[in-house]
Amino acid sequence: MPQEEGNKSRGKTPLKKRIRNKGSDALTNNTTSTLSRQWLLLQSLKRGAWTGTGALQQALRREGIEINLRTIQRDLKTLAERFPLEADGLSPQGWRWRDDAPDMSAPGMTSGQALTFMMVEQHLSTLMPSSILAELRPWFDNARKQLAQGNEGVHRWTDKVRIVPPNQPLIPPEIDKDALHTIQEALLTNRWLDVQYQSRNKSDTLNLQISPLALVQRGTVLYLIATGKSLSSGKATDEVRRYALHRFKAATLREERVKPPKDFDLNDYLDKGGLGFGNGEMTKLKITLSREAGEHLYESRLSEDQEIKELDDGQLEVVATVADTPQLRWWLRAMGV
Q1: Spacing of C-alpha 303 from chain mean position
Q2: What is the number of structural domains in the chain?
Q3: Does the CA dihedral 109-110-114-117 come out positive or negative?
Q4: Domain carrying residue 31
Q5: CA 85, 86, 88: angle at the middle one, nearest 5?
Q6: What order of strands is seen across the sheet that includes strand 94-97?
Protein backbone atom coordinates (compact mmCIF):
# COMPACT_ATOMS: atom_id res chain seq x y z
CA MET A 1 0.00 0.00 0.00
CA PRO A 2 1.38 3.46 -0.86
CA GLN A 3 2.53 5.52 2.10
CA GLU A 4 -0.01 8.31 1.51
CA GLU A 5 -2.90 5.80 1.45
CA GLY A 6 -1.55 4.30 4.67
CA ASN A 7 -1.67 7.72 6.31
CA LYS A 8 -5.28 8.18 5.21
CA SER A 9 -6.26 4.77 6.55
CA ARG A 10 -4.86 5.67 9.98
CA GLY A 11 -6.59 9.09 9.99
CA LYS A 12 -3.34 11.05 9.67
CA THR A 13 -3.08 14.35 7.80
CA PRO A 14 -0.85 14.17 4.70
CA LEU A 15 2.55 15.81 5.08
CA LYS A 16 1.86 18.60 2.54
CA LYS A 17 -1.37 19.55 4.32
CA ARG A 18 0.34 19.55 7.75
CA ILE A 19 3.02 21.94 6.43
CA ARG A 20 0.32 24.14 4.91
CA ASN A 21 -1.62 24.23 8.24
CA LYS A 22 1.54 25.04 10.17
CA GLY A 23 2.24 27.96 7.85
CA SER A 24 -1.34 29.17 8.29
CA ASP A 25 -1.00 29.06 12.11
CA ALA A 26 2.25 31.05 11.96
CA LEU A 27 0.59 33.64 9.72
CA THR A 28 -2.36 33.95 12.14
CA ASN A 29 -0.06 34.38 15.14
CA ASN A 30 2.03 36.98 13.29
CA THR A 31 -1.09 38.91 12.25
CA THR A 32 -2.43 38.87 15.82
CA SER A 33 0.93 40.12 17.14
CA THR A 34 0.97 42.96 14.59
CA LEU A 35 -2.61 44.00 15.39
CA SER A 36 -1.89 43.99 19.12
CA ARG A 37 1.26 46.08 18.64
CA GLN A 38 -0.46 48.59 16.35
CA TRP A 39 -3.42 48.92 18.71
CA LEU A 40 -1.03 49.78 21.55
CA LEU A 41 0.62 52.38 19.32
CA LEU A 42 -2.76 54.04 18.69
CA GLN A 43 -3.48 54.08 22.43
CA SER A 44 -0.09 55.70 23.14
CA LEU A 45 -0.55 58.64 20.77
CA LYS A 46 -1.89 61.97 22.09
CA ARG A 47 -3.96 64.78 20.69
CA GLY A 48 -2.22 68.18 20.60
CA ALA A 49 1.21 66.82 21.63
CA TRP A 50 3.87 64.97 19.64
CA THR A 51 5.08 61.55 20.80
CA GLY A 52 8.47 60.41 19.49
CA THR A 53 9.15 56.92 18.21
CA GLY A 54 11.59 56.39 21.11
CA ALA A 55 8.81 57.08 23.63
CA LEU A 56 6.50 54.74 21.71
CA GLN A 57 9.19 52.04 21.84
CA GLN A 58 9.33 52.46 25.63
CA ALA A 59 5.53 52.18 25.83
CA LEU A 60 5.65 48.89 23.91
CA ARG A 61 8.46 47.60 26.14
CA ARG A 62 6.27 48.17 29.19
CA GLU A 63 3.80 45.78 27.61
CA GLY A 64 6.54 43.19 26.98
CA ILE A 65 6.90 43.94 23.25
CA GLU A 66 10.47 44.34 21.96
CA ILE A 67 10.48 45.97 18.53
CA ASN A 68 12.94 48.18 16.64
CA LEU A 69 12.31 51.82 15.69
CA ARG A 70 12.17 51.04 11.96
CA THR A 71 9.23 48.65 12.49
CA ILE A 72 7.43 51.23 14.66
CA GLN A 73 7.88 53.86 11.94
CA ARG A 74 6.54 51.44 9.34
CA ASP A 75 3.53 50.61 11.58
CA LEU A 76 2.74 54.31 12.03
CA LYS A 77 2.83 54.99 8.29
CA THR A 78 0.47 52.05 7.75
CA LEU A 79 -1.88 53.26 10.49
CA ALA A 80 -1.85 56.82 9.09
CA GLU A 81 -3.43 55.46 5.90
CA ARG A 82 -6.54 54.43 7.86
CA PHE A 83 -6.55 56.68 10.96
CA PRO A 84 -6.32 60.50 11.30
CA LEU A 85 -2.66 60.59 12.35
CA GLU A 86 0.07 63.05 11.41
CA ALA A 87 3.88 63.25 11.71
CA ASP A 88 5.97 66.35 12.44
CA GLY A 89 8.51 65.59 9.71
CA LEU A 90 11.47 65.87 12.07
CA SER A 91 14.19 63.32 12.73
CA PRO A 92 13.56 61.41 14.92
CA GLN A 93 9.94 61.73 13.97
CA GLY A 94 7.04 62.57 16.28
CA TRP A 95 3.43 61.49 15.81
CA ARG A 96 0.02 62.54 17.15
CA TRP A 97 -3.71 62.43 16.45
CA ARG A 98 -4.85 65.18 14.08
CA ASP A 99 -7.01 67.96 15.51
CA ASP A 100 -9.99 66.72 13.48
CA ALA A 101 -9.66 63.16 14.83
CA PRO A 102 -12.77 61.82 16.63
CA ASP A 103 -12.61 61.59 20.40
CA MET A 104 -10.95 58.31 21.44
CA SER A 105 -10.54 59.10 25.15
CA ALA A 106 -11.95 57.13 28.06
CA PRO A 107 -15.49 55.78 27.74
CA GLY A 108 -18.27 56.61 30.19
CA MET A 109 -17.79 55.49 33.79
CA THR A 110 -20.04 54.53 36.65
CA SER A 111 -19.78 56.64 39.80
CA GLY A 112 -17.95 53.79 41.53
CA GLN A 113 -15.36 53.52 38.76
CA ALA A 114 -14.86 57.29 38.74
CA LEU A 115 -14.32 57.29 42.52
CA THR A 116 -11.73 54.51 42.17
CA PHE A 117 -9.74 56.54 39.63
CA MET A 118 -9.83 59.59 41.90
CA MET A 119 -8.61 57.58 44.91
CA VAL A 120 -5.79 56.10 42.80
CA GLU A 121 -4.68 59.58 41.70
CA GLN A 122 -4.88 60.93 45.25
CA HIS A 123 -3.16 58.14 47.18
CA LEU A 124 -1.08 56.02 44.79
CA SER A 125 0.46 58.56 42.43
CA THR A 126 3.89 58.44 44.13
CA LEU A 127 4.05 54.65 43.71
CA MET A 128 2.96 54.58 40.06
CA PRO A 129 5.31 55.17 37.11
CA SER A 130 5.00 58.69 35.69
CA SER A 131 4.59 57.28 32.18
CA ILE A 132 1.56 55.22 33.25
CA LEU A 133 0.07 58.16 35.15
CA ALA A 134 0.36 60.21 31.95
CA GLU A 135 -1.49 57.48 30.04
CA LEU A 136 -4.25 57.51 32.68
CA ARG A 137 -4.69 61.30 32.56
CA PRO A 138 -7.78 61.14 30.26
CA TRP A 139 -9.38 58.68 32.71
CA PHE A 140 -8.61 60.93 35.69
CA ASP A 141 -10.10 63.93 33.88
CA ASN A 142 -13.14 61.90 32.87
CA ALA A 143 -13.56 60.68 36.47
CA ARG A 144 -13.59 64.25 37.79
CA LYS A 145 -16.30 65.22 35.30
CA GLN A 146 -18.32 62.12 36.21
CA LEU A 147 -18.18 62.82 39.94
CA ALA A 148 -19.00 66.50 39.44
CA GLN A 149 -22.33 65.62 37.84
CA GLY A 150 -23.03 62.27 39.45
CA ASN A 151 -24.35 60.83 42.69
CA GLU A 152 -24.01 63.34 45.54
CA GLY A 153 -22.95 60.69 48.07
CA VAL A 154 -20.18 59.32 45.87
CA HIS A 155 -19.15 62.82 44.80
CA ARG A 156 -18.53 63.84 48.42
CA TRP A 157 -16.70 60.64 49.40
CA THR A 158 -13.20 62.03 48.73
CA ASP A 159 -14.02 64.88 51.16
CA LYS A 160 -14.89 62.36 53.87
CA VAL A 161 -11.85 60.05 53.95
CA ARG A 162 -8.20 60.67 54.81
CA ILE A 163 -5.02 58.70 55.53
CA VAL A 164 -3.06 60.12 58.47
CA PRO A 165 0.31 59.00 59.90
CA PRO A 166 0.35 57.41 63.38
CA ASN A 167 3.34 59.56 64.37
CA GLN A 168 4.33 63.22 64.17
CA PRO A 169 3.31 64.58 60.72
CA LEU A 170 6.32 65.52 58.57
CA ILE A 171 6.64 67.40 55.29
CA PRO A 172 7.80 65.01 52.51
CA PRO A 173 11.31 65.72 51.15
CA GLU A 174 11.46 67.07 47.60
CA ILE A 175 12.28 64.52 44.89
CA ASP A 176 13.91 65.37 41.56
CA LYS A 177 11.09 64.68 39.08
CA ASP A 178 13.37 63.70 36.18
CA ALA A 179 15.31 61.26 38.35
CA LEU A 180 12.07 59.80 39.74
CA HIS A 181 10.65 59.30 36.25
CA THR A 182 13.83 57.53 35.06
CA ILE A 183 14.00 55.32 38.16
CA GLN A 184 10.36 54.31 37.78
CA GLU A 185 10.93 53.48 34.12
CA ALA A 186 13.96 51.32 34.99
CA LEU A 187 11.96 49.45 37.62
CA LEU A 188 9.07 48.99 35.21
CA THR A 189 11.20 47.70 32.32
CA ASN A 190 13.85 45.85 34.41
CA ARG A 191 16.82 47.95 33.30
CA TRP A 192 20.08 49.07 34.93
CA LEU A 193 20.63 52.68 36.02
CA ASP A 194 23.60 55.04 36.25
CA VAL A 195 22.87 57.46 39.10
CA GLN A 196 24.31 60.30 41.15
CA TYR A 197 23.40 59.78 44.80
CA GLN A 198 24.05 62.27 47.57
CA SER A 199 25.11 61.10 51.02
CA ARG A 200 22.98 61.99 54.04
CA ASN A 201 25.38 64.71 55.23
CA LYS A 202 25.50 66.08 51.64
CA SER A 203 29.31 66.05 51.68
CA ASP A 204 29.72 63.41 48.95
CA THR A 205 27.96 62.61 45.68
CA LEU A 206 28.36 58.96 44.72
CA ASN A 207 28.37 57.70 41.13
CA LEU A 208 26.63 54.34 41.18
CA GLN A 209 25.31 51.73 38.79
CA ILE A 210 22.27 50.11 40.37
CA SER A 211 19.84 47.32 39.65
CA PRO A 212 16.37 48.36 40.92
CA LEU A 213 14.26 45.75 42.71
CA ALA A 214 11.35 47.54 44.38
CA LEU A 215 9.87 50.88 45.39
CA VAL A 216 8.50 51.26 48.93
CA GLN A 217 6.97 54.21 50.73
CA ARG A 218 7.69 54.49 54.46
CA GLY A 219 5.91 57.43 56.01
CA THR A 220 6.79 60.52 53.96
CA VAL A 221 9.94 59.00 52.43
CA LEU A 222 10.07 56.94 49.25
CA TYR A 223 12.82 54.29 49.04
CA LEU A 224 14.30 52.37 46.13
CA ILE A 225 15.38 48.84 47.03
CA ALA A 226 18.30 47.82 44.81
CA THR A 227 21.64 46.10 44.35
CA GLY A 228 24.54 47.67 42.50
CA LYS A 229 28.13 48.84 42.38
CA SER A 230 30.23 51.98 42.66
CA LEU A 231 31.36 53.32 39.29
CA SER A 232 34.55 54.68 40.86
CA SER A 233 35.68 51.35 42.33
CA GLY A 234 33.81 49.04 39.94
CA LYS A 235 33.10 46.74 42.88
CA ALA A 236 29.73 44.99 42.49
CA THR A 237 27.67 43.50 45.31
CA ASP A 238 24.53 41.39 45.62
CA GLU A 239 23.71 43.07 48.92
CA VAL A 240 20.22 44.53 48.88
CA ARG A 241 20.30 48.18 49.95
CA ARG A 242 17.89 51.07 50.52
CA TYR A 243 18.20 54.37 48.65
CA ALA A 244 16.10 57.39 49.61
CA LEU A 245 14.53 58.80 46.44
CA HIS A 246 15.08 62.43 47.43
CA ARG A 247 18.87 61.90 47.47
CA PHE A 248 19.05 60.96 43.79
CA LYS A 249 20.37 63.98 41.90
CA ALA A 250 20.44 62.40 38.43
CA ALA A 251 19.60 59.07 36.80
CA THR A 252 20.28 57.64 33.34
CA LEU A 253 18.60 54.58 31.91
CA ARG A 254 20.84 51.82 30.52
CA GLU A 255 19.95 49.23 27.88
CA GLU A 256 21.17 46.27 29.96
CA ARG A 257 18.47 44.13 31.52
CA VAL A 258 18.38 43.48 35.27
CA LYS A 259 18.75 39.95 36.66
CA PRO A 260 17.25 40.17 40.17
CA PRO A 261 18.73 37.97 42.91
CA LYS A 262 16.91 34.65 42.84
CA ASP A 263 16.41 34.66 46.61
CA PHE A 264 14.98 38.20 46.82
CA ASP A 265 11.34 38.44 47.87
CA LEU A 266 9.94 41.86 48.76
CA ASN A 267 7.48 40.58 51.37
CA ASP A 268 10.19 38.53 53.07
CA TYR A 269 12.55 41.52 52.96
CA LEU A 270 9.96 43.75 54.65
CA ASP A 271 8.90 41.07 57.17
CA LYS A 272 12.51 40.82 58.33
CA GLY A 273 12.72 44.55 58.96
CA GLY A 274 14.30 45.76 55.73
CA LEU A 275 12.55 49.12 56.01
CA GLY A 276 13.11 49.21 59.75
CA PHE A 277 16.81 49.53 58.87
CA GLY A 278 17.67 46.11 60.26
CA ASN A 279 19.90 43.34 58.94
CA GLY A 280 17.26 40.61 58.69
CA GLU A 281 17.76 39.16 62.19
CA MET A 282 14.73 38.17 64.26
CA THR A 283 14.46 38.30 68.04
CA LYS A 284 12.12 36.99 70.75
CA LEU A 285 10.79 40.11 72.45
CA LYS A 286 9.48 40.01 76.03
CA ILE A 287 8.30 43.29 77.54
CA THR A 288 6.04 44.50 80.35
CA LEU A 289 3.69 47.39 79.66
CA SER A 290 1.00 49.23 81.53
CA ARG A 291 -2.52 48.30 80.43
CA GLU A 292 -2.99 51.79 79.02
CA ALA A 293 0.16 51.55 76.89
CA GLY A 294 -0.25 47.96 75.71
CA GLU A 295 -3.99 47.37 75.39
CA HIS A 296 -3.99 48.26 71.67
CA LEU A 297 -1.76 45.22 71.03
CA TYR A 298 -4.79 42.97 71.57
CA GLU A 299 -6.13 44.27 68.24
CA SER A 300 -2.94 45.36 66.41
CA ARG A 301 -0.48 42.56 67.09
CA LEU A 302 3.29 42.72 66.91
CA SER A 303 3.51 39.28 65.25
CA GLU A 304 1.49 36.18 64.44
CA ASP A 305 2.88 34.35 67.51
CA GLN A 306 2.25 37.23 69.94
CA GLU A 307 1.02 36.27 73.42
CA ILE A 308 -0.27 38.63 76.11
CA LYS A 309 -0.40 37.69 79.77
CA GLU A 310 -2.19 39.84 82.35
CA LEU A 311 -0.07 40.14 85.49
CA ASP A 312 -1.34 40.39 89.07
CA ASP A 313 -0.43 44.09 89.30
CA GLY A 314 -2.59 44.90 86.24
CA GLN A 315 0.28 45.23 83.80
CA LEU A 316 0.60 43.27 80.56
CA GLU A 317 3.45 40.90 79.66
CA VAL A 318 3.87 40.74 75.87
CA VAL A 319 5.93 38.06 74.08
CA ALA A 320 6.42 38.14 70.29
CA THR A 321 8.97 37.26 67.60
CA VAL A 322 9.89 40.45 65.72
CA ALA A 323 12.60 41.87 63.46
CA ASP A 324 15.52 43.29 65.43
CA THR A 325 15.73 46.80 64.01
CA PRO A 326 16.39 50.39 65.10
CA GLN A 327 12.72 51.00 64.42
CA LEU A 328 11.85 48.43 67.09
CA ARG A 329 14.06 50.22 69.60
CA TRP A 330 12.49 53.58 68.72
CA TRP A 331 9.08 52.04 69.35
CA LEU A 332 10.19 50.54 72.67
CA ARG A 333 11.48 53.91 73.85
CA ALA A 334 8.19 55.53 72.85
CA MET A 335 6.37 52.87 74.89
CA GLY A 336 8.53 53.68 77.92
CA VAL A 337 10.38 50.34 77.92
Answers
A1: 28
A2: 4
A3: negative
A4: 3-97
A5: 155
A6: 51-52, 94-97, 85-87
